[in-house]
Amino acid sequence: MQTIVTPESCPFCQGDNTCMVNDIKSCWCSNTPVPAELIALVPTHLQRKACICVACINLFNESPSLFMERYLKITAT
Questions:
Q1: Are 11 and 49 a contacting pair, CB within 8 Å?
Q2: What is the Cα–Cα distance from 18 to 7, expressed in whole angstroms?
Q3: Closest C-alpha to 21, from 13, 11, 12, 31
Q4: 63 near 69, Cβ under 8 Å?
Q5: Of 49, 71, 74, which Cα lies nearest the Cα of 60?
């Protein structure tokens, strides 16, 4: 998990989240539902600092256990 948070970085994969929430145009993140379970996984010190990227949202929606194994080092049981 990254320790330096930028608004452009996903708190999980550290990739570009392509968020344009501060832009004049509407951002994809304004219209994309993010599961509450995924938001709850963001460490407290990283919450509300940057958007979770669409790739991480999609991976979590497809396979929460794979997402946790990949980004949180939690092995599915």
A1: yes
A2: 9
A3: 31
A4: no
A5: 71
Q: What is the pTM of this model?
A: 0.80
Distance CA 3, CA 61 (A): 25
Q: What is the pLDDT of residue 2?
A: 43
DSSP H helices in the chain: 36-41, 54-62, 64-71
Residue 51 in contact with residue 30, Cβ under 8 Å?
no
CA distance 20 to 1: 23
**Close Cβ partners of 15 (under 8 Å, ≥ 6 residues apart):** 9, 53, 55
Q: From CA 73, how far away is CA 28, in angstroms rounded? A: 28
